[in-house]
């Protein structure tokens, strides 16, 4: 550690501009070994999920979105049915093949005879995309609402703050369930825009919106105290116009808070997405996500548990990595922050 | 003391009104489809549709519809399910409530005890490998989807290890009322309790450790040390007591949220017929009146619970009391 500290200070001996808060934060983050480990794990997961089409084509050699009830694969020179007749009971039912630990059906098949490993990579794409963009939705809306309420004040603030109070008091899962069931039963139609009920946009919007109060409330508080701070007063007295004060003095401070929130929100969104998908009101067929695959595995829990276990492990590893990264980002950018994101 | 209580109750009523409007707008004014078709379910006949349209007043302006729906929910309480014809929604919710309460109360006992244990142990051994291991385990607990933990618990206790000495006592999935058979009630809920508590043990343990470590830097701890008090006494009589303030207010919020729907996933996985599982069954059949009722009643419960916690808090803590 001491070596790297010396290395890090070496360029500073050249007289230059002082290190800005961004550079300082990034440097601290790069020196945080846990956070960097988390980044590497996340990159591996992202690359693996992006490689899903390659995996399906070259390794699993099946279409993971098409049922394959009559198929066979060759294992150790023998042809094996993917859906095997039950040996117990009347022998009428079928059980999908378990993990082969080889290229094809590495983690076994689900009830439709589809390759679980390939589905997990495709499902991971959706889980990651939804939790990422839901985070963006939350942060953008929260920044907008929080800044407008805190900066303008007066009646605007009263109305927005009361609205946030109501949404905040609303239990997250109940709000998400209400929105999901209404939207997923018939889709959403606003003027010329028609979002079909199986679009990924719906879970993104739903998850993004339900967490807005959790970020908007602290942002509003921060903007209010910044608006009353001495340096803003000084700027106003110098005749700096309000928009310039907003963009030069207030928003840069808010951005740090948003960055600190981002990984923690994404972890939370991933758990929420999986829960909604598990309740069949998240990602809709034919698409998959880690949550829907766990739900597929519920029926096979006692016979082929790997179908439910594997996507759960993927969720845990990803969320854990995001939480570690979140801790690192908080320490690097905002060491005094005491953020409590409510886990549901 | 009197004025703040009135004020908090006023806030509570305002939030309840706000929530009822939000729920109403979500269910009846979301653009995209005819609300009558949503309410009446998937295979509604034209007669049923017409009946729904009339009884909910869909041909009238939104405020009238709002009043009609609220009347059905809270005054006449005769909202009926359209999927299971004639089933009254509100009595079903009331009947399911004890199951949810049993689940959440037991889990709360476990998470408070173990949360305090984790927080105190980690803070007492801060910087050591024990502290790091506990905090890592806590983070893992926070990062696990609860329905997945429940599934794995079922796999082990109901199937794989069920016939070993470890789990042979676990009864099949389901719920036995406390009044019917107390021992079976307890046995059937142990695994769901632990499953539900894991997340909160991690969360509370981590928060408590952070608060304790902060408290240890305060002057009153140095004073206690200077007086020659034992480490155990400093921890339990001085540091823990101030650190529990956050813990207690978190507990109020989380307990309310769990009873009001947060325990849904656990109920589904363990097949416990509580309010959450009712909501789940209604979700599967797209039974919107049912979902609307459970959502409305549960969120009102949460709001009332939060208000009571705040009032109790103000009563206990003079700083909060006078700040208002």
Structure characterization notes:
Chain A has helices spanning 2-9, 21-31, 33-50, 52-60, 116-152, 154-169, 172-186, 201-210, 212-227, 230-237, 242-278, 290-298, 306-333; strands at 72-75, 78-81, 83-85, 94-96, 188-190, 193-195. Chain A has 344 residues and is mostly helical. Chain A has one domain (37-54, 114-343): MetI-like fold (Orthogonal Bundle). In chain A, the strands form three sheets. Chain A has a two-stranded antiparallel sheet with strand order 1-2. Chain A has a two-stranded antiparallel sheet with strand order 3-4. A two-stranded antiparallel sheet of chain A has the order 5-6. The longest helix of chain A is centred in the middle third of the chain and has 37 residues, at 116-152. The longest helix of chain B is centred in the N-terminal third of the chain and has 36 residues, at 89-124. In chain B, α5 (89-124) packs across α8 and α7 (146-160) packs across α8. The N and C termini of chain B lie close together (9 Å). Chain B contains 14 helices and no strands. Chain B has two domains: 2-89, no CATH class; 96-323, MetI-like fold (Orthogonal Bundle), CATH 1.10.3720. With 324 residues, chain B is mostly helical. Chains A and B meet through α6, α7, β5, α11 and α12 of A and α1, α6, α7, α8 and α10 of B.
Topology:
The complex is a heterodimer of chains A (344) and B (324).
Chain A: H1 2-9, H2 21-31, H3 33-50, H4 52-60, E1 72-75, E2 78-81, E3 83-85, E4 94-96, H5 116-152, H6 154-169, H7 172-186, E5 188-190, E6 193-195, H8 201-210, H9 212-227, H10 230-237, H11 242-278, H12 290-298, H13 306-333
Helix pairs in contact in A: 2-13, 3-5, 3-13, 4-5, 5-6, 5-8, 5-9, 5-11, 5-12, 6-9, 7-8, 9-11, 10-11, 11-12, 11-13, 12-13
Chain B: H1 2-28, H2 35-40, H3 46-55, H4 62-75, H5 89-124, H6 129-143, H7 146-160, H8 182-215, H9 219-226, H10 231-262, H11 264-269, H12 275-284, H13 288-316, H14 318-323
């Amino acid at each position: 550690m001491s070596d790297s500290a010396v290395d890090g200070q070496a360029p500073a001996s050249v007289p230059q501009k002082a290190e800005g808060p961004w550079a300082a934060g990034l440097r601290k983050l790069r020196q945080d070994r846990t956070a960097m480990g988390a980044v590497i794990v996340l990159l591996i997961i992202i690359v693996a999920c992006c490689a899903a089409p390659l995996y399906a084509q070259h390794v699993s050699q099946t279409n993971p979105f098409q049922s394959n009830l009559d198929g066979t694969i060759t294992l150790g020179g023998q042809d094996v049915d993917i859906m095997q007749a039950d040996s117990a009971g009347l022998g009428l039912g079928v059980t999908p093949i378990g993990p082969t630990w080889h290229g094809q059906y590495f983690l076994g098949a689900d009830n439709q005879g589809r390759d679980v490993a390939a589905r997990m990579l495709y499902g991971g794409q959706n889980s990651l995309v939804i939790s990422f963009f839901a985070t963006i939705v939350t942060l953008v809306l929260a920044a907008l609402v929080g800044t407008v309420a805190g900066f303008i004040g007066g009646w605007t603030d009263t109305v927005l703050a009361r609205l946030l109070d109501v949404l905040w008091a609303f239990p997250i899962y109940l709000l998400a369930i209400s929105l999901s069931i209404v939207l997923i039963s018939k889709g959403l139609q606003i003027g010329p825009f028609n979002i079909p009920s199986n679009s990924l946009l719906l879970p993104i919007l739903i998850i993004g919106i339900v967490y807005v109060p959790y970020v908007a409330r602290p942002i509003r508080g921060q903007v209010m105290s910044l608006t009353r701070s001495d340096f803003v007063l000084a700027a106003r007295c110098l005749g700096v116009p309000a928009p310039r004060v907003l963009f030069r003095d207030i928003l840069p401070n808010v951005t740090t808070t948003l960055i600190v929130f981002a990984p923690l929100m994404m972890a939370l969104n991933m758990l929420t997405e999986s829960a909604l998908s598990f309740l069949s009101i998240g990602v809709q067929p034919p698409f998959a996500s880690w949550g829907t695959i766990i739900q597929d595995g519920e029926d096979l829990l006692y016979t082929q548990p790997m179908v439910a276990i594997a996507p759960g492990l993927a969720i845990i590893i990803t969320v854990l990595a995001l939480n570690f990264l979140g801790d690192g980002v908080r320490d690097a950018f905002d060491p005094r922050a005491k953020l409590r994101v409510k886990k549901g | 003391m009197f004025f703040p209580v009135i004020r908090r109750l006023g806030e509570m009523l305002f939030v309840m009104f706000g929530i009822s409007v939000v729920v109403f707008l979500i269910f009846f004014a979301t653009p995209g489809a005819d609300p009558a078709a949503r309410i009446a379910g998937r295979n509604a006949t034209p007669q049923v549709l017409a009946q729904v349209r009339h009884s909910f007043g869909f041909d009238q302006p939104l405020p009238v519809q709002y009043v009609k729906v609220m009347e059905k929910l809270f005054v006449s309480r005769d909202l009926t399910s359209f999927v299971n014809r004639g089933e009254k929604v509100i009595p079903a919710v009331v009947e399911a409530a004890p199951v949810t309460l049993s689940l959440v109360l037991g889990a709360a006992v476990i998470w408070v005890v173990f949360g305090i244990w984790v927080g105190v142990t980690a803070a007492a051994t801060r910087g050591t490998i024990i502290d790091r291991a506990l905090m890592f385990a806590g983070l893992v607990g926070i990062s696990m989807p609860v329905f997945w933990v429940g599934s794995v618990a079922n796999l082990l206790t109901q199937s794989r290890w069920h016939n070993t000495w470890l789990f042979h006592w676990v009864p099949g999935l389901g719920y036995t009322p406390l009044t019917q058979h107390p021992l079976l009630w307890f046995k059937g809920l142990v695994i769901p309790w632990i499953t539900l508590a894991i997340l909160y043990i991690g969360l509370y343990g981590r928060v408590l450790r952070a608060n304790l470590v902060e408290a240890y830097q305060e002057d009153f701890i140095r004073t206690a040390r200077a007086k020659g008090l034992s480490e155990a006494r400093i921890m339990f009589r001085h540091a823990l007591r101030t650190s529990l303030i956050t813990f207690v207010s978190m507990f109020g919020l989380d307990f309310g949220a769990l009873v009001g729907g947060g325990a849904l996933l656990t109920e589904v996985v363990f097949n416990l017929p509580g309010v959450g599982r009712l909501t789940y069954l209604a979700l599967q059949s797209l039974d919107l009146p049912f979902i609307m009722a459970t959502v409305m009643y549960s969120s009102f419960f949460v709001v009332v619970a939060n208000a009571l916690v705040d009032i109790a808090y103000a009563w206990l803590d003079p700083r909060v009391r006078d700040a208002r």
